[in-house]
Structures are given as C-alpha cells and as structure tokens.
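User: Here's a structure from my thesis project, written as structure tokens. My advisor, Dr. K., wants to see whether a designed sequence matches the one we expressed. Can you design one independently, without my sequence as a hint?
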C-alpha cells in the first residue's frame, strides 16, 4: 500500500490496485496535467474546461463538448481522483482533487507531463469504465 500525505492531515493509505486504476484513468483522459495542477489550488468549473476555453488554458489538447467533459470528469470521480465542489446551496459544477488525485498529480508534476498510455492502459481503462470492473 502507498499513502498520500496532505499537509496537516493524517496520511491516507491506498492499495496499489487503487493507485494503478486512478493513474490509468488520469493518463488515458483527454485532460492535460495543467488542469489538475490548477485543481490543487482551486476548484475548476466545467465551462472553463469545455470548448475552446479549455484549450486556451492548457487544460485539453483539443476542444471538448460540455457533455464529453462532464462524462470524463464523472469517471475520474468514480475512480476517486476528483470530487464535486459543494457550496452553501449544494453541489456546484466545479471540481477539485481528492487526496488520491493530489498524490498522483504531485507525482506527475515532477516530470511535467503524463506518461504516454500504452495500449494495455487504454484497454483496461476502457473495460473498467464500460463494465465498472475494479482493475
């Protein structure tokens, strides 16, 4: 097991299988590392990621529809990398990293980019996503 230690908190321990599934989901996503680095400091709304705005900010390689962004972000919530931001009136359209997501993003930030996903990464991520398998 590996742990994440955010400042002033007890470390979280994650099974290697959980870490690998989350890593695969991140590197296979349509998002650049820069988006998740921004989420360390603040929440990011869907509209800042969708369309040409996401490309201009360096969050995506190509323009994505709002639906595509929402679907990919929802998958990252399911694997434990992201959470929806909540305000006084309920859930918002903004997202933040979880401690698991922060641990992975900080690891990749040292390299400045994601690993290139292999065909096996893409296959396992697709199967996990479609079938909701815990690979």
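Assistant: Designed independently from the structure alone:
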């Amino acid at each position: 097991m590996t742990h994440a230690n955010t400042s002033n908190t007890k470390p979280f321990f994650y099974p290697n299988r959980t870490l690998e599934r989350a890593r695969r989901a991140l590197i296979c996503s349509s998002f650049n590392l820069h988006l998740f680095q921004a989420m360390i400091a603040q929440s990011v709304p869907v509209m800042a990621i969708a369309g040409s705005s996401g490309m201009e900010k360096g969050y995506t390689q190509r323009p994505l529809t709002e639906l595509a962004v929402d679907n990919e972000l929802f998958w990252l919530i399911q694997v434990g990398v992201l959470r929806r931001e909540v305000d006084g009136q309920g859930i918002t359209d903004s997202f933040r990293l979880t401690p698991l997501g922060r641990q992975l993003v900080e690891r990749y930030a040292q390299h400045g980019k994601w690993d290139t996903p292999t065909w096996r990464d893409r296959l396992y991520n697709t199967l996990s996503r479609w079938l909701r398998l815990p690979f």
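When you compare it with your expressed construct, this may help: The beta strands are 2-4, 12-14, 44-45, 82-87, 90-97.
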